[in-house]
Amino acid sequence: MARLMIVAVLFLAGLAAGCGTVETAGQRNRRISHIADMQSRMMVDDIDTILLLDQNTRLSRWNAYVGY
């Protein structure tokens, strides 16, 4: 019975402690703004690719398109 109580107390202490790291409000805001910046850059890259505005790849020895 005592072992069961010890296991139960340790289990509850583990649940109360949680897992993961604690970050400050500034760190959280920087993380969120960094994610938003990356997503907006990826969206611009995707739009450029769809509209064929991206740079030439130069994988061929012939220039298929002479752009800007």
Give a verbal description of the structure:
By secondary structure, the protein is mostly helical. It contains two helices and no strands. It has helices spanning 2-17, 25-50. The longest helix has 26 residues, at 25-50. The radius of gyration is 27 Å and the shape is elongated. The mean pLDDT is 82.
Provide the descriptors you would attach to this structure in a database record:
68 residues, mainly alpha, 62% helix, 0% strand, elongated
Let me know the average pLDDT.
82
Total DSSP E strands: 0
Shape: elongated
Number of H- or I-type helical stretches: 2
The portion of residues assigned to helices is 55-70%
Element layout with pairings:
Blueprint: H1 2-17, H2 25-50
Write a compact overview of the structure shown:
This protein is mostly helical and 68 residues long. It has helices spanning 2-17, 25-50. It is built from two helices and no strands.
